[in-house]
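Reviewers of the previous submission asked for a worked example of the structure-prediction workflow described in the proposal, so we include one complete record here. The input consisted solely of the amino acid sequence. No template or homolog information was supplied to the procedure at any stage.
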Amino acid sequence: MRRSSLHSEQRATSETARGINRAIVLNLVRRRQPISRADLARASGLQPSTVSLITAQLLREKWVVYGCVGRLPRGRRPTFLQLNDRRAIVALDLRPANSTVAVADVNGNFLERQSIPTPDTPDAAVKVFSDRILRMVADHPELLFEGIGVVIPGRYDEKRGRVVFAPNLKWPEFDLKAPLEKVTRLPVRMENAANACVLAEVWFAQSTARNLVAVTVSEGIGVGIFVDGHLLHAANGMAGEFGHIPLDPTGPVCGCGARGCWEVYASNWAAVRFYGASKRSGGPTFQDLLALAEGGDQKALRALDHMAHEIGRGMRMVIAALSPEEIVFVGEFTRLWSQMGPVIERAVKQSVLVGNSPLVRPAPAEPSVARLRGTVAMVVQEHFGSAVDRRPRIAKLLHKPTVQRRGVEVMSL
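From that input alone, the workflow returned the following C-alpha cells.
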C-alpha cells in the first residue's frame, strides 16, 4: 500500500480535503453499518450538510445503499446506510497443490468458492484461472465486479509486475497480473499470503494494533509485517521472509536452495516428514495428521508438538527483529491451538527482550478465509482512501473538530 502523509496542510488542496472526508465517511459506513447520516456526522465531526453531500455521492456511485428505517420517539425517522453488497471481488488463493477461486462482496462475505488443482506452469495457470474467473463472473450478472485479488505463496515485486520468489510453487519468475487483466478485463491486485492475512486482520477483524505480524504456516512459513500502522514491503516486496532464514546450516535442503531454513522444520510438510511420511510416498497429508491427532494418535501428537516447538524457535527471530504488539497465526494447525498454542506462547514470552509479551492468538477465520478476505481489502482499499494504511490516524481524526478552509470543510490535522 502507498504510504500517505496527512501532516502538511500547506500542500493540501480542496480535492485533498474532499478525498479525506469521503474516505472517513465511507470507512465509518463500512465499520458501523447500518448507520444514519446523523450518526455519521456525530462520529466524524463533520457538518450534517457535508455528510449529506458525501453520502449522496456514494449513493450515486453505488458504493452505499439505503437499508432499514429507524424508529425514534419523535421527529423524522432516520434511514440507515450500508455498503452495497452487490459490489463484488474475485478472490484467488494460489497454493502449490490446490488453489481456491471465490466470489466475495465488499463485506468479505463469500457467495461462491471453488477448489481446483493448481496447474504445473504459469502459462497453464493463466488459462485455467482466467477461464474459471470468467465463468464465475458470468454466473453472477447481478454483481458489480471491482477486480481480482490474487494471494501468492511468495513475493510480488510491484515495480516489475512479477512474482519474483515462490519456491514452494517450483515456478520460475513469472507475470500473472498482466495476462489475467488482458483476458478478464478486470484490474488485478497481487499480494503475498502473509501480507493478505495482515490486511484481513486490520480490515475485517479490525485489530487496533499499530505493530502487528501475521505468521502464516502452510507449505512454507511467511510473515506479514504491519509496522506503525503501515504494511511493510521493502525492496522487491521481500520484507518478512523469515521462513527462509537458516536455523541450522547443516539441516535439510529448503525449496529456496539453502539448508536448514525455519520452514523446513516448522511448516506443514515438515510435520508430515517428522511423522515419517514424505511428499511423494502417498502417506498421510497434513490434514490427515490433524485428524489423527484429534483422534488421540500419539505419533501424530508428537509430530505436532515438535512442530509447535519449531514454530516457537523461529519466533525468537521475529520477536527480536520486530518487537510486535500482537502476533496472529494463520494455518490449519490452529485447529489444535489448545494443544499447540501454549507451546508457542511460552516460546514467544521467553523471547521478549524488554517490556511486555505481545498478544499471541490464532486468526478468527479459517486460513483460506483469512487469505481470501485479504484479497477483498487489496482490491477495494483504493476506493476507501487506503484506509488500512491510515486507519489508526483516521481513528484519531474521528474525534477532532473540523475547520473551514477556502469553503471546504476538513478535519483538523
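The chain is about 40% helix and 20% strand. We consider this example representative of the routine output the project will generate in years two and three.
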